[in-house]
Design a protein that fits this description.
The complex is a heterotrimer of chains A (496), B (157) and C (352). Chain A has 496 residues and is mostly helical. In chain A, 75% of the residues lie in helices and 1% in strands. Chain A contains 22 helices and two strands. Chain A has a two-stranded antiparallel sheet. In chain A, α5 runs antiparallel to α7, α6 packs antiparallel against α7 and α9 crosses α15. Chain A starts with a helix and ends with a helix. Chain B is mostly helical and 157 residues long. Chain B has two domains: 59 residues; 74 residues, no CATH class. Chain B has six helices and no strands. By secondary structure, chain C is α/β, with parallel strands linked by helices. Chain C folds into two domains: 154 residues, 3-Layer(aba) Sandwich (D-Maltodextrin-Binding Protein, domain 2); 129 residues, Periplasmic binding protein-like II (D-Maltodextrin-Binding Protein, domain 2). Chain C is 46% helix and 16% strand. Chain C is built from 14 helices and eleven strands. In chain C, β6, α6 and β7 form a beta-alpha-beta unit. In chain C, α4 runs antiparallel to α10, α10 runs antiparallel to α13 and α10 crosses α14. Classes of the chains: A mainly alpha (496), B mainly alpha (157), C alpha/beta (352). Chains in contact: A-B, A-C, B-C. Chains A and B meet through α3, α6, α10, α12 and α19 of A and α1, α2, α3, α4 and α5 of B.
């Protein structure tokens, strides 16, 4: 094992690999920086080059490098213009953007990069530590366990609804309904597609996110006719953000751990890890009144988790050659093209390549963080640019991002629909985060419940994994209540 | 200032109607496909009704308009025209994409918006060209996207 | 005198004309020189159809006169319907538009519906790549229950219940008395692989030979049979489905129904030119495809993507197969619906 680790490190530290990795980091950062443009588009650009490359390590350096860092740079648009840079940076908007409006963009950005750095190192570390138990780990999660995990996610809806639980729940329900559009695998019914082939494969999450979160904030900016930052100082700035992460290290590490665990669930992890971490932060932190209004912890938690989740999504890949998420799936295609055989070999004869992947994840993350930090101050200044330069550019990018989803004119129509919905929701105080959660988790929950029931009958409730997860779920829901009571009792005891 | 409260109640009503419509459509399907819609829809209709009633009561109450959520404060209610203005631009951009195509609409939109709100001609031109360049490079040169036919093309031919 | 002059002039003009034509033919400006071929792909980048399209786009030009450029255009959506509709409506029949589709496009066409605005029988097939028939995997420890009607049924897992290999198991259940039930709804092949490893499902089919080998090497699974005309060189000890059926193989409407269901997979990933493309261009393309299939580099890249059991079929053969696979008699159709209902599989638009 040690020899394989060293061999992997050696292959990664060659000039050629580092050059490829730098290229990957650069491209990945650029892609992350631009809202909406993600996995499929990037792969479409890279595939022709990759198909011609012969060296497996170079391919790993390039693609894994690219994949690892998309979530770091995607903090830029989330914080600066409230447009999600990628599926993993949605939660960052909730606190990041208010900070930018206060002129604290540099602080938010450096905090997010620092958190990303921690997450990006802890992720591969945990991955490394779990190599021996990878297979039993992956095998212990069946449909029933996945179902309970989606339930857990939906419990977050309550947390994210703040003071408007009824509206939050309704938003979540609307989100689930949006997710049901399309062909339902388990019954063959085309739900809510009204005969349109475009809707057959469902509504793309990125269009929903861009419409619900991106456009309404842009409208607000245009209406205010000022710059993004309503004040004109750079605020507490760069150094403060780094200090913030140091002061909240336990939160950062916890969020990284959440990221890797959620990231490893196939199909579920990528778009949800940041919400889990964010909601968990609210549930467990003290003094939570400022969450949603510009609390730096609301930036740290999601950003730490969305970097570690990349490492998590490699767990099923390394264990069995099963992609953990969309980006890993695409990478696997490229691997196959150069003769890397994803599967059991990864833990036996090709162990050195596995280590190359792990090392690349860590090193690329570090590279990306430094790259982003170097650009923070100059880019943060765009918060002070006049609105008439920013608004049209944002809108163009939003339209591009939406169009890139399916390269279809209906993408733009849907964008208009969701922009209107998002605008109205924001105007009338309907929480929007639960809607996104509903879109991501709703149909998975339905699916896993269905599969659990058809396959196991009622027995699935008695599985040890299910019971354990239920207990954890209840604990996470009840903990804040217990915590509040404790604090309340404390105050009472203190009163004269 | 009660019109904002009325709008609020109307939006809730809209959600109610949307859910009701979805439930109605779902009743045609096999149970396997419809059960989640029926269950959640039923719950949703009850919640929406409760919220609607609360919104109606709020219209008559004397309390100042306060919207409490997790998120950044909702848009202030005094700027109806401000909102319409930007929506006009957004819809105009969308229409332009359909009429003259993405590649032409992008620089046109960027240039005209920047110019209209105070940008200098040079700045507007630069931004317009840059944005066009980006769209062209990514979608045309690299991805060879099959652009949907703009209306103007079918009118000419 | 004037008559002679005009004869002379006409003769010159004729000679000049003939000379021009013949020199052009002799200098033979290659047909595709300076041209760009657009290959429309009916899926997102990264899938099997996309891989096939890219491999073809990379190697086909070498064998076409003029070595054209190629560009890939991805047009996902509707299970291939969007790309098919677009191609049928917009593709120019001048040799510069090609379409890389997969068997789902054929399946959708046969199932029909108002949104189907194309007819694959009208396309001109250039060639096809088939990745080999599916291999059916079974968890070893469940073997005894396969033919024991009193034991708990074995669970077959699938995504949408209409994969072509599911047909073999349905017919096996009908005619060999296999003890099966079908659970479908899994989102995709990664979830199915996981489920097979965990024991949540007992049987699953895939044509991905690498995947199958991984499973078999782990020791807990075996291959029941392969859905092929004859045994693949990589799996010489695995019987074909027809071998397993033996003399219990049904005839008539039943077998026709089986072929209609299982057929499209035989074609797998096929490349077509639009209706109306002139014959001589189609011939050039088809010849190019056949020669490309023998190219060593092409073969290496195809193997790395598709495993070792892929093979190509000529455009003519592909064209015939498309016609065969998209027609089904009324008897066979009703048999198909009945047998699907019997095993709880989707039959089409489900209304109450």
């Amino acid at each position: 094992m040690i020899e394989a680790a060293l061999e992997g490190l050696q292959s990664v530290l060659t000039l050629h690999s580092l050059a490829m990795m730098s290229l990957g980091v650069l491209i990945g950062s650029l892609v992350g920086f631009l809202p909406g443009i993600g996995g499929p588009t990037t792969l479409a650009i890279m595939l022709p080059f990759v198909m011609v490359m012969q060296d497996p390590v170079a391919v790993i350096a390039l693609l894994v490098g690219m994949d690892a860092v998309g979530n770091t740079a995607s903090a830029f648009p989330s914080i600066l213009i409230s447009v999600p840079g990628s599926a993993g940076s949605q939660a960052t908007i909730l606190d990041g953007y208010p900070m930018a409006k206060r002129g604290e963009a540099a602080r938010a950005l450096s905090a997010s990069f620092m958190a990303s750095l921690v997450g990006g190192i802890i992720g591969p570390l945990i991955l490394l530590a779990s190599l021996p138990v990878l297979r039993p780990l992956v095998l212990s999660f069946g449909s029933p366990e996945f179902f309970v995990l989606t339930l857990w996610g939906l419990a977050m809806v309550g947390v994210l609804s703040g003071n408007a639980p009824v509206k939050g729940l309704l938003a979540g329900i609307i989100g689930v309904f949006i997710a049901t559009v399309g062909l339902d695998m388990k019954s063959g019914v085309e739900r809510f597609s009204f005969g349109e082939p475009y809707l057959w494969e469902g509504i793309s999450l990125i269009i929903v996110a861009l419409g619900i979160f991106g456009v309404p904030e842009c409208i607000d900016l245009a209406r205010r006719k000022t710059s993004i930052a309503e004040r004109h100082e750079l605020g507490s700035g760069f150094k403060q953000g780094i200090i913030d992460v140091m002061q909240n290290m336990w939160l950062t590490v916890r969020s990284s751990a959440i990221g890797i665990w959620v990231g490893f669930l196939p199909g579920l992890g990528s778009s949800v890890a940041d919400w889990f971490a964010y909601a968990n932060a609210i549930q467990t932190e003290k003094h939570k009144e400022n969450f949603g209004k510009g609390d730096v912890r609301g930036v740290i938690a999601p950003e730490a988790s969305n970097n570690s989740k990349e490492a998590g999504s490699y767990i099923p890949t390394l264990a069995f050659g099963i992609p953990g998420g969309t980006s890993t799936a695409l990478i696997l295609v490229a691997f196959t093209a150069v003769g890397i055989n994803p599967g059991p070999d990864m833990l036996t004869t090709q162990l050195n390549l596995t280590f190359a992947i792990i090392w690349t994840l860590a090193i690329a993350n570090i590279m990306a963080v430094f790259l982003c930090m170097a650009f923070t101050k100059p880019i943060a200044k765009c918060c002070f640019l006049p609105f008439y330069t920013i608004v049209p550019i944002i809108l163009v990018f939003v339209f591009i991002g939406a169009f890139a989803a399916n390269l279809n004119r209906y993408d733009l129509l849907l964008l208009m629909v969701f922009s209107t919905l998002g605008f109205m929701m924001r105007r009338h105080g309907w929480p929007r985060a639960p809607l996104l959660l509903g879109v991501v988790l709703g149909t998975k929950m339905e699916l896993y419940l269905w599969l659990s029931y058809t396959r196991y009958g009622a027995d699935w409730l008695q599985r040890p994994g299910v019971i354990l997860l239920f207990i954890l779920l209840l604990a996470s829901v009840l903990y804040p209540i217990w915590q509040a009571r404790r604090v309340g009792a404390f105050i009472e005891a203190d009163a004269p | 200032m009660t019109w904002i409260k009325i709008e609020r109640a109307l939006f809730t009503l809209f959600v109610f109607v949307l859910l009701a419509g979805a439930v109605q459509v779902a009743r045609e399907w096999a149970i396997r496909a419809s059960i989640i819609i029926l269950l959640l829809g039923g719950l949703g209709l009850a919640l929406a009704l409760a919220q609607f009633i609360s919104d109606i009561k709020n219209i008559e109450s004397k309390k100042p308009d306060e919207v409490l959520t997790m998120e950044a404060p909702a848009a202030k209610s005094d700027s109806r025209w401000g909102n319409l203005e930007i929506w006009g631009w957004i819809l105009g951009f969308y229409a332009a994409i359909h009429v003259i195509g993405f590649l032409a609409a992008v620089p046109l939109f960027v240039f005209s918006y920047t110019k209209a709100y105070g940008g200098s001609s040079i700045l507007s031109l630069i931004l317009g060209v840059m944005s066009w360049g980006f769209v062209y490079a990514l979608f045309d040169a690299i991805l060879h996207v099959p652009w949907p036919k703009p209306l103007i093309a079918s009118l000419i031919s | 005198m004037r008559f002679r002059l005009s004869c002379l002039v006409s003769a010159w003009v004729l000679a000049l004309g003939l000379h021009t034509v013949s020199t052009e033919a002799a200098s033979g400006k290659p047909f595709f020189e300076g041209k760009t071929i657009k290959v429309l792909v009916s899926s997102n980048p990264g899938g099997g159809t996309d891989a096939a399209g890219r491999v073809v786009a990379r190697f086909l030009p070498k064998y076409l006169p003029g070595q054209p450029q190629t560009i890939i255009q991805n047009m996902p959506g509707g299970g291939g319907t969007i790309a098919n509709n677009y191609f049928a409506a917009n593709a120019k029949p001048d040799g510069t538009w090609l379409f890389q589709d997969s068997s789902s496009g054929l399946g959708n066409f046969t199932r029909g519906g108002s949104r189907i605005k194309y007819d694959p029988r009208k396309y001109l097939a250039i060639g096809s790549i088939t990745r080999g028939g599916s291999l059916m995997m079974l968890r070893k420890d469940t073997r005894p229950r396969l033919t024991d009607p009193k034991a708990k049924k074995l669970v077959v897992g699938d995504s949408d219940g209409i994969r072509t290999w599911v047909s073999t198991l349905v017919w096996a259940a009908e005619y060999l008395g296999w003890n099966l039930r079908f659970v479908y709804g899994y989102p995709g092949s990664q979830e199915l692989q996981l489920a097979l490893r965990q024991g949540e499902i007992d049987i699953w089919g895939t044509s991905n030979a690498k995947l199958v080998r991984n499973f078999v090497d782990e020791g807990k699974h075996e291959i029941l049979f392969q859905q092929e005309d004859k045994r693949r060189p990589g799996f010489p000890n695995v019987p074909t489905f027809e071998e397993i059926l033996g003399n219990k193989k049904p005839k008539g409407a039943s077998w026709e129904a089986y072929l209609a269901w299982a057929g499209p997979n035989e074609i797998d990933k096929f490349l077509v030119a639009p209706e109306g493309t002139p014959d001589h261009i189609v011939t050039i393309l088809r010849q190019g495809f056949t020669r490309m299939a023998k190219d060593e580099d092409f073969q290496k890249q195809a193997t790395s993507f598709f495993g070792d059991a892929w093979r190509t079929r000529t455009g003519e053969k592909t064209q015939t197969m498309i016609a065969e696979v998209t027609t089904i008699s009324k008897d066979a159709e009703s048999f198909l619906t009945k047998v699907r209902e019997k095993y709880g599989l989707p039959t089409g638009e489900q209304r109450k």
